[in-house]
Amino acid sequence: MATLPNSAFPDMEEPWTVREYLRTTWSPDREFVEGQIEERNLGEKEHSIIQRFLTVLFAVKRTEWRVEVFPELRTQTQARRFRVPDVLVMRAGDKFERYVTQPPLIAIEILSPEDTLQAMREKAAEYRQFGVEHIWIIDPEPRLAYRATEAGLEEVRTGDLAVPGTPIRVLLSELFAELDRA
Predict the structure, then answer these.
(1) Confidence class for position 71, pLDDT limits 50, 70, 90
(2) SS3 of 78, please?
(3) CA distances from 50 to 59, 71, 78, 150, 172 (A)
(4) Who wins on pLDDT, 136 or 152?
(5) Can you give the pLDDT at residue 100?
(6) DSSP designation for 7
(7) 1, 53, 61, 167: which has the highest count of C-beta atoms within 10 A?
(8) Alpha-carbon span 74 to 50, nearest angstrom
(9) How far apart are CA 27 and CA 20, in angstroms?
(10) Global confidence as pTM
(11) Environment class of residue 160 by beta-carbon count within 10 Å: exposed (0-12), middle (13-18) or buried (19+)?
C-alpha cells in the first residue's frame, strides 16, 4: 500500500480532509489515513478470483447465514481513517448510509504480491481496535489464510474459516481450488 504524497494531486497542497476524501472517486478506491491517501494493491487475477469466490459465496448464503456482503466498501474505522476491505460482511439488518461506521461481522483482506504481512498486521490491529471481531487475511500465492486475534495473525490450520456460533464456514480447499480453475 503506497501513500500518495499530496503533491501527486496538484490542487491539494495540504492534507486531505474527510469531506474531500468522501467526495472523491477513484477506481479502484483508495484508503484515507490521517489526511493521506493510500493506494490499495489489487487487480491481479488471483486476488480477483478469491474476491469473487468470497463475494458470491456470502451472497448465495446470505439468508442462511443472516449476512449481507459488500466488496470494497469504505469503512470508517476512526474519525480520520477509512479502510476499504476487499470483502466486508455485515450482519443482516445492520444499517448504514454511504459507508460503514460500525464494526462489520467480518473484514476480509486478500494479499497481492506487493502487500506485506506486516502491513496487514497493522491494518488488522486497526480493525480490531474498531471492534471487528473476525478479520481474515487470504494469501493466494502460498494458499494460506490467517485469522487476526488479539495475539496477532495466526495461520489457519483447521481447513476452514468460520464464525463460532453461526453456520458461517468457508472451506479453504474450495476457496483455493478456484485458483486451479482459471
Answers:
(1) very high
(2) strand
(3) 14, 11, 28, 25, 11
(4) 136
(5) 96
(6) G
(7) 53
(8) 19
(9) 16
(10) 0.85
(11) middle
Which amino acid does the sequence have at 98? Answer: R
Contacts of 115 (CB under 8 A, 6+ apart): 1, 41
Could you tell me which residue, 25 or 173, shows the higher pLDDT?
173
Task: Return the axis-axis angle of helices 45-60 and 172-181, rounded to nearest 10°.
Answer: 130
Q: Are 127 and 107 in contact (CB under 8 A)?
A: yes
Q: In what order do the strands lie in the sheet with 152-155?
A: 67-71, 87-91, 106-110, 134-139, 144-149, 152-155
| Residue 77 in grid coordinates | 474505522
Sheet (strand 36-38) strand order: 3-4, 36-38, 31-33, 81-83, 75-78
Please state the length of the chain: 182
pLDDT bucket at 13, cuts 50 / 70 / 90: low
Measured distance CA(162)–CA(51) in Å, rounded: 17
Which residue is listed with cell 456460533?
165
